[in-house]
């Protein structure tokens, strides 16, 4: 069943991490019904809107537009009764810059809906074949970014977050990798042997994934020349030594563990 688009509505759609077929079914359905598709062409493959859009749909890249221009295009189309898709990379809720767009649409009285997408951290975990929440090893995932041109609230500085030793996905930090690694090591929760993966354009045709430790990853990344669109993933869960059958497992499928839908097995 096709998800029905409502004329006069703006849909913020998560495009996923890169591969066109990793968009959600709902996102694909909305692209197929859109009159106007505004997409972040610096981060979203042009093949994605082209693959699903109607032949007569207007497709506009937003890389050279500022906020007011983007809002004006969306408002004009929606007020004319058109279906608008604002296509963002990954998941719109994470570094998607949709907050200010939604505020402007609220002010203009334009209805909108957000359609989630697959963010790069989870696409990378899938690519690596790992779970980022391993029983009795790590149960928390932190998605963050280092301070840069956009500052961080003091309570969210990387040094404080690193102290938890959680699975840590660091976006928008590849150009500051040496400082990021130094901060992580200074936290005391990670060591130079802690596994780290740096992935460039995960799921894109030119994807590159570098594995290492906090002690050796910097020269690997420098040699690869990554300067943008790379994710840093730090977690003890990345260590293959933990993927074995003799370690603690989840209680979810433990035969001796009962819950409201299953009785435990008594030997």
Integer-rounded radius of gyration:
21 Å
Shape: globular
Strand order of the largest sheet: 3-2-4-1-5
CATH fold description of the largest domain = Methyltransferase, Cobalt-precorrin-4 Transmethylase, Domain 2
- Separation, N- and C-terminal Cα atoms: 47 Å
| Quaternary structure state of the chains depicted | single chain
Please give the share of residues in helix: 25-40%
The CATH architecture term of the largest domain is 2-Layer Sandwich
Biggest beta sheet attributes: 5 strands, parallel
CATH class of the largest domain: Alpha Beta
Q: Please provide the ordered H/E string of secondary-structure elements.
A: EHEHEHEHEHEHEHEEHE
Number of domains: 2
- CATH homologous superfamily grouping of the largest domain: Tetrapyrrole methylase, C-terminal domain
Q: Beta-strand percentage? A: 15-25%
Question: Count the strands?
Answer: 10
Which whole number gives the mean pLDDT? 93
Please tally the helical runs, counting DSSP H or I stretches of 4 or more residues: 8
Structural class given helices, strands, pairing? alpha/beta
- Taking pLDDT < 50 over at least 5 consecutive residues as the criterion, the unreliable ranges are none
Protein name: Precorrin-4 C(11)-methyltransferase
Pfam family, one: TP_methylase
Keywords: Cobalamin biosynthesis, Methyltransferase, S-adenosyl-L-methionine, Transferase
Domain Tetrapyrrole methylase: 9-217
């Amino acid at each position: 069943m096709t998800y029905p688009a409502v004329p006069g509505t703006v849909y913020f759609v998560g495009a996923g991490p890169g591969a066109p077929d990793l968009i959600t079914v709902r996102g694909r359905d909305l692209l197929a019904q859109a009159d106007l598709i505004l997409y972040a062409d610096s981060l979203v493959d042009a093949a994605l809107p082209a693959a699903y859009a109607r032949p007569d749909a207007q497709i506009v890249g937003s890389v050279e537009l500022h906020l007011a221009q983007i809002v004006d295009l969306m408002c004009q189309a929606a007020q004319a009764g058109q279906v608008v898709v604002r296509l963002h990379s990954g998941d719109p809720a994470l570094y998607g810059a949709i907050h200010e767009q939604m505020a402007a649409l609220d002010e203009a009285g334009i209805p909108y809906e957000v359609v989630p997408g697959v963010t790069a951290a989870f696409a990378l975990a899938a690519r690596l074949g790992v779970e980022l929440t391993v029983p009795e090893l790590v149960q928390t995932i932190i998605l963050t970014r280092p301070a840069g041109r956009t500052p961080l609230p003091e309570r969210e500085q990387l040094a404080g977050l690193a102290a938890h030793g959680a699975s840590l996905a660091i976006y928008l930090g590849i150009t500051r990798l040496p400082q990021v690694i130094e901060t992580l090591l200074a936290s005391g929760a990670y060591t130079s042997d802690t596994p780290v993966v740096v992935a460039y354009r995960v799921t894109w045709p030119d994807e590159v994934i570098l594995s290492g430790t906090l002690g050796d990853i910097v020269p690997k990344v420098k040699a690869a020349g990554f300067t943008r669109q790379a994710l840093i993933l730090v977690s003890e869960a990345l260590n293959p030594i933990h993927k074995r059958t003799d370690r603690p497992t989840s209680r979810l499928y433990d035969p001796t563990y009962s819950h409201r839908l299953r009785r435990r097995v008594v030997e």
